[in-house]
Write a structure and sequence with these properties.
The protein is α/β, with parallel strands linked by helices. It is built from 30 helices and 25 strands. Strand 5, helix 10 and strand 6 form a beta-alpha-beta unit. The N and C termini lie far apart (65 Å). InterPro entries: GcvP, GDC-P_C, GDC-P_N, GDC_P, PyrdxlP-dep_Trfase, PyrdxlP-dep_Trfase_major, PyrdxlP-dep_Trfase_small.
Amino acid sequence: MDLPLITDPASYLARHTGPDAAEEQTMLARVGFSSLDALIDAALPTDIRVTTRPQTGPPLSETQAQARLRAYAAQNTVLRAFYGQGFSDTITPPVIRRGVVENPGWYTAYTPYQPEISQGRLEALLAFQTMVSELTGLPVANASLLDEASAVAEAVGLMSRARKKGRKVVLDARLHPQVLGVAAERARAIDLEVEITSLASELVGEDLCGVVIAYPATDGEVSDPSAVIRAIHDRGGLATVVTDPLSLLLLESPGELGADIAVGNSQRFGVPLFYGGPHAAYMAVTEELKRQLPGRLVGVSVDAEGAPAYRLALQTREQHIRRERATSNICTAQALLAVTAAMYAVHHGPEGLRAIAERVHDRAVSFAATVRETGLELLHDAFFDTVAVRVPGRAHAVVDRLAEEGYLVRPINMDTVGVSFGESATEEDVTRLAAAFGAGEARVGEPCIPAAVERRTPTLTHPIFRTMHSETQMMRYLRTLADRDLALDRTMIPLGSCTMKLNPTAGMEAITWPEFADIHPYAPDRQARGWLALIGELEGWLAELTGYAAVSVQPNAGSQGELAGLLAIRRYHLANGDADRDICLVPASAHGTNAASATLANLRVVVIATADDGSIDLADLDARLAEHGPAVAAIMITYPSTHGVFEETVREVCDKVHAVGGQVYIDGANMNAMTGLAQPGGFGGDVSHLNLHKTFTIPHGGGGPGVGPVAVAEHLVPFLPADPARADATRPVAGQAGVPISSTKYGSAGVLPISWAYIAMMGSEGLARASASAILSANYIARELQDSFPVLYTGRNGLVAHECILDLRGLTKESGVTAADVAKRLIDFGFHAPTLSFPVAGTLMVEPTESEDLAELDRFIEAMRTIRAEIQEIIDGKVPYEDSVLRHAPYTAWSVSRDDWDHSFTRQQAAWPVPGLRRTKYFPPVRRLDEAYGDRNLVCSCPPPEAFDFTRTPEES
């Protein structure tokens, strides 16, 4: 099958693909092929190539795609959302919507593993952590988790690790149903006993690792959790409190009440409903638990000149280093949404937030007083924003009547209706809502927060929440932060394994359309017809492209897709009576999430060695299968391999594992090299997850959002993720069914229009050409740099897949220059570094993607060759390593322009090493960070303003 030519310069394929026809021919000639088809024939093993192109329909133009999206949006019915259950009406300030959510400077940034070029997003994430810490009254908060339900599951895991003797967890029956559904099954998966009971007043039982308490409850009740917290502490366990951040402006903080962990969802801090996500969950913990905290953690360190600088802290506890011993499998967080929530707090400040909380509470109190006048019973007299009204036998009639009036409220059961008030609720809303219950004009009520939990401790005291008074200040602050970073909007991000490619604006625009963004995730299907049609079409396309029978988009990150796939495999074996199949084979080169996910699925990890050519060592695989065959549940492989090659033996590996009764999990992280060319479900896979934030163009957002759909073969379809809102958490899910993974049925649905638009605009042939172009770009870079930096692994005909590993170990031995030195030096050329020391220490893994044009590829090649020449000067003895331009990189504008300069190399060599930088120079805001300092002196909230007073010494600051 020949790949299509790009004949229409206005097509989206032409807009998405960087090299034009002439540039492509230049690159092909350098690689040694006459055509793109010839290159693909040489690179891909013949036995994995598709014989019939997967079909997704003819390509649409951007205008046509947006018209289709508007047609889908028009099928949705947007009601005023008073439903609650963890998702609330909120108002996104326009300055934040435009300045963050819709700003490519924020949404195209990568995870801040290179801190010198990530100071803006790190500061914003630190503001999020500070906000959460101050609201919850606990000293250490992370930089977001994926959603509330899975965050509670993470808290349960944390409690079980910290209190190993207890093998039972108690979940408050008053938690939201989706939280119970996800947390209970995740706990059972790691062999914890689960008890679900109301924790409004007491706690019974022993052998407890911890409890999870609702504060407020799903039906609105606010009660004092202190007695339960004391009781679990008396039994040696830990207490997790699940809380609404807006309520904490009026309710006392969990930390003040004695909680060890606080968990919640920051959605109502300015993040649209998005039909369920993406929304940034959070977790805050005591000092005792900080080194077991899951997720990313931003800390404060210093740079080479002693100036304060931000970085990710305590990374040694994360999955990419500790693998099966990690605190979590979390890889993607919800950074963009955490930034949005943090900036919402900055924008409103503590007084503004308290005013919003008081207004929400006043509306709820007024509604309760008005309904009470009719003689109806309220379930609770103490509440924050949710009023539960008993209407025996009439709940659905009331809900339907209000739907006709334009309101979405919650039928808690046949006899009870819940009405949850949000930021935009008005007095008129109170009157209209109450009328459906037979009430008249709205009445004034008295605040009903119990005195025992009324907020007395101050919050949001840091100056960052008290200094932005105008939109001008906010606009400039957001611009200042964005300008400190390097994102895809101004440079190639050549990260191996992460596929930082163009995100289609035509799809990005759609996610904030009210008809998509303002739909509550638990709205009846009849109100979300457009969403369901779009999601159904997208899931069908993904199944077609991967060669699997079915796909679920519920997993809201690649890590969750991995877990969903492994749980499907585990439950399949259990359903077949193979309870002893509990071993997961994981290659030594695999992503750290693979091993961590296997552990969360209660599988034992057995590592498979890597052969000299970077492929799976078949002899070692045979030995492990001979040793463990009857116990093998699955093997996890990445294809193309993590080493950036198309392994010739992938079918053989799959056949060997199938022969002993195991299943094959193919990690879809590298699907950008295969889409339209090969199908993992067609060459041996039983299950894969995909990264929509990689291959299918959802932005990385500085570390999230992500979506990790799970795709399965026919025999695993019954084990796809279940609807969390319909789960019965009181008993384990039957063996022939799947378990919920995320808070909502369709996970982070709000960003799915982006991937839908990408596939619709590329079409089947365009997707195949994009994969081929990515392979061409990687081979072009490998060929151009092979004389400067050896390419560690190659596959068929000396070719790589869509990425290549540059080996610096020999140069390091000769010169002392490390891969980290090269990564930092690239900042001076205006580049984000390639992936550092993964999967092989002392190397750089480069993935250029199909989106980068020849000029940008050549700019990167020029930078790398220039750095190689700088290394050669050290090898030749012309420059000592300790006083080399590489050793001290990167350089700030201040460091090269101030009066004192005590280096042997010139300022020009430091800051402008190639002529092209003179017009487009990026200066990092800080010098190279002292990584160890930040872990030795752990500070995970915003430093005081005097820390940035540069008239003071570092010690004084």
